[in-house]
Amino acid sequence: MSKRYTLLKKEGKARRGRFVTPHGTIETPVFMNVGTLAAIKGAVSSMDLKEIGCQVELSNTYHLHLRPSDEVIYKMGGLHSFMNWDKPILTDSGGFQVFSLAKMRKIKEEGVYFNSHIDGSKIFMGPEESMQIQSHLASTIAMAFDECVSNPSTREYVERSVDRTTRWLERCKIEIDRLNLLPSTINKEQMLFGINQGGVYDDIRIEHAKTITKMDLDGYAIGGLAVGESHEDMYRVIDAVVPYLPEDKPIYLMGVGTPENILEAVDRGIDFFDCVLPARNGRHGSVFTKNGKINLLNAKFQLDSKPIDEGCQCPACKSYTRAYIRHLFKAKELLALRLCVLHNLYFYNKLMADIRDALDGGYFKEFKEEKLKQWNLNA
């Protein structure tokens, strides 16, 4: 396998890297903007994503399999063509739905039997099916099919689940290697990231990290966090696991998180992040600023002529006031959602760019302390 990830420099455990993919180079640390159904909720287009500095878009295998179906997307030339996005795309494997749709699924060795959350119809997804769907989607990075367990779970259950996730990963690797050789495959360079699991049990996490590292994958994720455990437990697990993952491969913390979470996780050696939080918050009028989070629905913003965040260069802040955006929410105008989602995603993408600059300049520790103090003082 040719070298794709270059570790440019470190500050403590924090890593500044560069990841070369078939759809462009990713500068890390990076936040991936979540477009579950090949679209960012809040009427944000792929052209908008470029304007706000997005490097990687993330879509979901399970949801796209249901609608419009991976067959439709394959016939339309893959996700990049379908959604008019020429930069990297990462597709989640459907493994998180094993957790989030717990009342609608049954786990077996061969895979998971779901009842569709849309119409109740029966769906089966195993490692091979997940790889086949992701191959149809032709994403840049495919995630291995795994089980995300809730926290807390018993040690006995977590051990059984992790062993099965390892067996599923072996099957994913065999299948993606097979698919990448087929003449009908759109992206014959599709990469595979494995996922470390183990709940909040450090020793299980470490052993699993050692096992999957031997498989020499394109990258590694830490999954099963931000699903019920405390922030302290999450940071402890990251500290435990990262030393046992390869230094020459990107490390992705799945589903995390707040700006504070991101700074803490970068400091612990994480390269990739994703979370629905900025878009979801934006759709409810909750926006991030350099002085902390504010809610534009509050009455005090009714006559506020300032932008969401003074000095911000996002499309919303360059053109509109807090008072106007608050009015849009009260009037139930969709433009309110669009402007706030654009702002929040810009805020996250700009935060990552500033983190990379701080690592390049050797002042990340000071940058982190300043940001955390600023956000905390104004919370």
From TrEMBL:
Residues annotated to bind Zn(2+): C312, C314, C317, H343
Family: Belongs to the queuine tRNA-ribosyltransferase family.
Active site feature: D92 (proton acceptor), D274 (nucleophile)
Pathway field: tRNA modification; tRNA-queuosine biosynthesis
Protein name as it appears in the record: Queuine tRNA-ribosyltransferase
Binding partners and assembly: Homodimer. Within each dimer, one monomer is responsible for RNA recognition and catalysis, while the other monomer binds to the replacement base PreQ1.
Protein encoded by which gene: tgt
One example GO MF annotation: metal ion binding
Cofactor info, note text: Binds 1 zinc ion per subunit.
Amino acids binding substrate: D92, S93, G94, G95, F96, D146, Q197, G224
One of the GO BP terms on file: tRNA queuosine(34) biosynthetic process
PANTHER family the record matches: QUEUINE TRNA-RIBOSYLTRANSFERASE
